Task: structure prediction
Amino acid sequence: MSPNDLPESPYRRVLFCTDFSANADHAFAFALDAAARRPGCALTILHVIPEPEAQFWKTYIYELDGVDEKARRDIDDRMAEAYLSRVPAGVVVDVEVRIGRDYVEILDCASRREADLIVLGRHGRSGIGDLLFGGVADKVTRKAPCPVLVVPPPHPPKA
Result:
C-alpha cells in the first residue's frame, strides 16, 4: 500500500500538554510527529501552572513590579527552547499557558480547540500510586472528548 492509498487522517488538531518534565519533552516527539506527518494539522502546546503555584505568584505580582512579566518571559523562553525550536517549517503551532487544575484545564483546552488528539507524558510512578491518588494522565484519559496518547517514560537502553 502506498502513502497515497492511505485514508485521510482524522487528526487535524493535536494538543500537546507539558509540565516541562523530562518525560513531557520525550512525549513532545510523538506530538510533533503526529502533526508533522499530516499536512494542515495544527499543534497546540499547553502548559498549565498549577493553582497553588499561581496563588503564590499572585501574592507577589501586586507587590513587586515586573514579576508577572518575568514569569511569563521565563515560560516563553522555556517553550521556545524546549519545543518551538524543534518544530519544522510548515507545522502550524500555537502556545497556550493557563492557570488552574491541570487536568481540568487540559480537558477545557481540548474541548475549546476541538482537539482530535491529546498527547501527554506519564510520570514513572507506580501503578498503585496512580490508583490511589489519580494521575493527570488517568483523569484526562477517562474524560477526554478525543483519543489520548499517553507516553510512558523512556526505558533505559538494554545492554
Summary: The helical segments are 22-36, 51-61, 67-82, 102-112, 127-133, 136-143.
